[in-house]
Queue: 2 jobs
Job 1
Amino acid sequence: MDHWDQFLAPYKQAVEELKVKLKGLRGQFANQRFHSPIEFVTGRVKPVASILVKANLKNISMDKLEREIQDIAGLRIMCQFVDDIQTVVQLLRNRNDFRIVEERNYIHHKKPSGYRSYHVVIEYPVQMVDGEKKILAEIQIRTLAMNFWATIEHSLNYKYHGQIPDEIKKRLQAAAEAAFHLDEQMSEIKDEIQEAQVYFKKNRETSE
Ligand code: 0O2
């Protein structure tokens, strides 16, 4: 096993475990026939190249990676409605299998790029063969519209090596506002949408 495999092993374990746990929450809501505040969950371990770029950018020495790069293990929870985000955050606060270290609300305080999301940094204990290892993981919680925007902006950032031309930047900022407006509109007809979803699900179940 090389140095990076060894370093990343607890992070890989944590991402797999957390994906199961968070997807489990979604399943529990579905079983109880409640609206699930969780639409879907994804997770990834940050690639070594990205860890090195971030460390370089933020002047973080190799011995401080574990503490200072908080999203080596990253989970993402997508929600249908903005209100669902607080419900999910509360669900996370109520758990006792990890400890919340920090919360960053980029919904009330959007980033200059237009980025909106709620970040929760947790300390998660992983059971390894040589004992328990506590690692940091970042859970990003956002609506489907916020996720759509962030995914597009992330690929443009990659394409332009972090230097998106001003004209495109402006369009992205406007698109972020449009996405937020879409979320607001959907929230206004939330009850109507949820009723339709329950009706749709019932009908599908009886016809199966
Ligand atoms: P990747 O490829 O997603 O892993 P900083 O990076 O300094 O802004 P910090 O302290 O690392 O911030 O924490 P923050 O901002 O809570 O979390 C960083 C992560 O949030 C990023 O990870 C992205 O996933 C997401 N993010 C933050 N700002 C933006 C943005 O403007 N646009 C998009 N698309 N995503 C953003 P990485 O490491 O950038 O990359």
Note: The chain has a mean pLDDT of 94.
Job 2
Amino acid sequence: MGNSADEVSKLHFFLFPFMAHGHMIPTLDMAKVFATKGAKSTILTTPLNSILLEKPIKSFNHENPQLENITIKILNFPCAELGLPQGCENTDFIFSSHELSTGDLSQKFFLALTYFKEQLEHLIETMKPDCLVANMFVPWATKVAEKFNVPRLVFHGTGYFSLCASHCMRLHKPYKQVASSSEPFVITGLPGDVVITDEQVIEKDEESVMGKFMKSVRESERDSFGVLVNSFYELEPAYSDFFKSFVAKRAWSIGPLSLTNRRFEEKAERGKKASIDEHECLKWLDSKTCDSVIYLSFGTMTSFNNEQLIEIAAGLEMSGHDFVWVVNKTASQEDKEEWLPEGFEERTKGKGLIIRGWAPQVLILDHQATGGFLTHCGWNSLLEGVASGLPMVTWPVGAEQFYNEKLVTQVLKTGVSVGVKKMMRVVGDFISRDKVERVVREVMVGEEMRKRAKELAEMAKVAVKEGGSSDLELDRLMDELKLVRLQREEENKS
Ligand code: UDP
């Protein structure tokens, strides 16, 4: 079956992202990718999140008048009624709130998501989309879609490697064979003899609240139409094959999604306005030589204490390398900035750029002066680093980030671990300045790692080009969905 834009012009996707930047950003990119295939997307989200998406969507629609428009449908989310503080519509709120316990609020936030159920039912019934792409954290979405005979695709937001690793951990429980939580073991059943420790592994208790919730996520995945993965085949072929053979039988790799952003404005603003003038930032990078700058970012949820931030600053200074460092802090005149060593910015003037708040990450990673990436291994960041051909320093903190680290250091061999021993969820295990200095130096001079990283970036670009592996998977998905729609139309006729 062919894939001309005409044929698929009427495919209509509902995209229902988890309300966190790490999920909203790839969802917006996904809508753009669908649009380039002639399909229409409606993003379902709450009022405050819709404000973040409005500008980039408007600009995309304006720049691409020949494509189907991306639209937003606003969902009601009455925070007070749901026992949440006013404005708590995004995990950003949870992690930047200083008065409330992050754990309690996160749990309430997760539970509140079921509030969307009726609204989603109503929208599917009235707008009749051809497919619902819903985040893993809304397991009930499979049943809702099924009720109206609409295929539901699961979007985890992570790659194959971590999905396969956690499957093998559940199945074989290799952590039970070691005497202590710090003793390394090989993940049984997972291709590649990958080594990890128990204290780096995400919650394993299947009877806990989160354990039960994750079970329902897996069940909804099993009953869904399949899984969409922001990855590309050449990056993790063994794990893509393993996932399709043993974990979820149907999956489509359609990434790296971030590569859909070609224009400066698209790369500069992907859902949140940068805290620095993007042109200034690029001007600063323009003054540096090729591959000479290391970029440091810990994503959207990590918060380090002052002691740790001081160690990072000191380690960077000791390494002698130029850097761009994004710190989850807002600049304030009263703030004495006790998280920086005395006189740090004067001493590193011209050598280092600190961005307080939000960085235009993809613009920075793509700049030729950027030659290394110190990352917390969130999947979006990791894949953006891969797409930019960068060797990495891995500094995982929580979630599935330790698995992602092992992909970089043990499988792809394009990075060096800073040596975090334990999962700490959002705070981070303490790392000394000496370690920071050592790994920054190692990554910035490691020619073999850089060569491999650049090869992967080339593969990523080919994957999303017409006829590339991700492009073809997307075509196959579109064909299947058209077929489902045809069948449904036939059923309705008879
Ligand atoms: N990001 C950004 N600027 C920042 C911090 C993050 O543009 O200052 C983007 C980053 O490019 C990525 C996303 O936010 O697309 C973070 O997702 P990731 O999965 O890496 O980490 P999370 O925050 O979800 O742990």
Note: Residues 21-22, 25, 297, 299-301, 326, 358-359, 361-362, 378-381, 384 surround uridine-5'-diphosphate (CB under 6 Å).
